[in-house]
Amino acid sequence: MKTLLFVTDLYYEAKGRNYYEEDLFLTSKLREDFQVVICHPEDTETFEKDFDLTVFRNAGPVANFKDKYQAFRNRVVSGYLKTYNSFNGMADMNGKEYLIELTNAKFPVIPTIDTLDSLDKLPNVKTYIVKPKDGADSIGMEFVTKDDLRDKVDSESKNTLVQPFINFEYEVSFYFIDKEFQYALYAPDKEQRWELKEYVPTEEDLTFANRFIEWNNLDWGIQRVDACRNEQGELLLVELEDLNPYLSLLELSDETRQNFVEAMKKSLQKALQA
Asked: C-alpha dihedral over 215, 218, 222, 228, to 10 degrees?
């Protein structure tokens, strides 16, 4: 059996979800086909050389261990370390800069800027959202008026993002393995973001989600396309999570969950053989 170093922070406290439940379930299934050892994200360097593949899962916001994460990435780029997901993604694994790139490229994304010189690219609204580029789990996010933007945004350092507040109908997420759609979940009550139900996407929905998966072009791994449905009925990208997306596996039907596990096992074998 091939060996997997499964990287997760089982005790990270996330709003509305328990990382440890999902990862204990997933590792219990993966050990049917692999030898699996669980490791905290800040301890990987000690062990990773002894494993065939490092699986980076629910590690929490990497901003909490920025230096160690950067060192980890450097070892991956140098060819010293093989990881799952592959580390050639252009989305969340690099921070939120890609939202500006997608905005400029006219993708269906919540418009995003990092300098007030570009404020004319955003709609004129009463409330804006300001958040750090390396943020996650809403850490550091603030709601501000247009008059307060100049006090919150440092246009020289460009380390913050500005977006208009969108009064959306609901949020929906599309989950992929190796560019293949697996399932979708949505929060019918937008005040209960993590009260999720399975969602049956339309062909138009999948065309929307696939556009971002093709743009990112990961070699292998799991991606989650997070979107919101605006009041005009259009989907807009909220974020493309290509590092360690939470999967909400325990919210799925038994059949969907098992299909996902089998698809992930095949994907892991693909990564090992690359």
From this structure: -10
Q: What is the pLDDT of residues 95-121, one digit of tens each?
A: 889 999 999 999 999 999 988 888 989
DSSP 169: S
Question: pLDDT tens across 18-41, in order?
Answer: 889 999 999 999 999 999 999 999
The whole-angstrom separation of Cα 39 and Cα 59 is: 10
Contact of 226 with 173, CB cutoff 8 Å: yes
Q: Give this prediction's pTM.
A: 0.93
With the CA atoms of 68, 194, 95 and 241 taken in that order, what torsion angle do they form, in degrees rounded to the nearest 10?
100
Interatomic CA distance for residues 268 and 24, integer angstroms: 17
Inter-axis angle of helices 254-273 and 19-30, nearest 10: 60
Give the three-class secondary structure for 216: helix
Per-residue tokens: 243 = 């590092």
Q: Outline where DSSP puts E strands in the chain.
A: 3-7, 13-14, 17-18, 35-39, 53-56, 83-84, 127-132, 142-145, 160-164, 170-177, 180-187, 197-198, 222-229, 235-241
